[in-house]
């Protein structure tokens, strides 16, 4: 019996790697599949893993109809037993419904991969519909970690190194280990898209809920630990502007 499975998690937890592995394993057993992706960091029509593997894929656009994609291939004699759907958070609800219909009416297995929520902790439309319709939602085994060592559950967006909570939902970007540099101070607020004399650099960082809520990125934690605070200094004993009642760094 065909299935709609949603493999979900934060950024950088191995979704695209798993997508490529599942495609490889099914293909190796003679099954025919089609790979789809949307807005991959490596560019249009690609599925790329940070482990270094990448391959071609069909780019999903707003007018892509998955039902038609499968019908066209089957009509021309191609075998379509399964679909690999990467970056599925960016698909529309209607496209996810087409995927579900392919499972139910054409016995096509659909393996979808995507992040659940955006930088404001809001569900992406595609992910929401997948959670609503999937036969199984699987959280990936490899956990992305917060800088504190806890499991990361949130995707924070940074602009020029500062965490932001406003801006467009879709902004293609990557997570990157932060290096020391001249970036603005902890708690400063800038908005995604704001240009201050240069093109803003958008990045992402996976955080645990506690540090997402307190707006403490790795860089912020470093600043606090290495700043002129009297040691020992407990980063977690601070409230953040905008994250609670504090107006600044307010040791609890
Ligand atoms: N140099 C590396 N060596 C080993 N593992 C790596 C390396 N770079 C990335 N990874 C692994 O790849 C994972 C990210 O895989 P990827 O498929 O790109 O994630 P996702 O699609 O979920 O964003 C990381 O969690 C890490 O486990
Ligand atoms: C949180 C968040 C992420 N994105 C973008 C950033 C990346 O291009 C992809 C996620 O890719 P990954 O392979 O899972 O790392 O999504 C976005 O556009 N908006 C967001 O809020």
From TrEMBL:
GO molecular function: thymidine kinase activity
Catalytic activity: thymidine + ATP = dTMP + ADP + H(+)
Segment forming the signal sequence: none
One Pfam family this sequence matches: TK
EC number: 2.7.1.21
Keywords, ordered alphabetically: ATP-binding, DNA synthesis, Kinase, Nucleotide-binding, Transferase
InterPro entries: Thymidine_kinase (IPR001267)
Ribonucleoprotein among keywords: no
UniProt keyword Kinase, yes or no: yes
Main EC class the enzyme belongs to: transferase
Family: Belongs to the thymidine kinase family.
Protein name: Thymidine kinase
Organism for this UniProt entry: Paenarthrobacter aromaticivorans
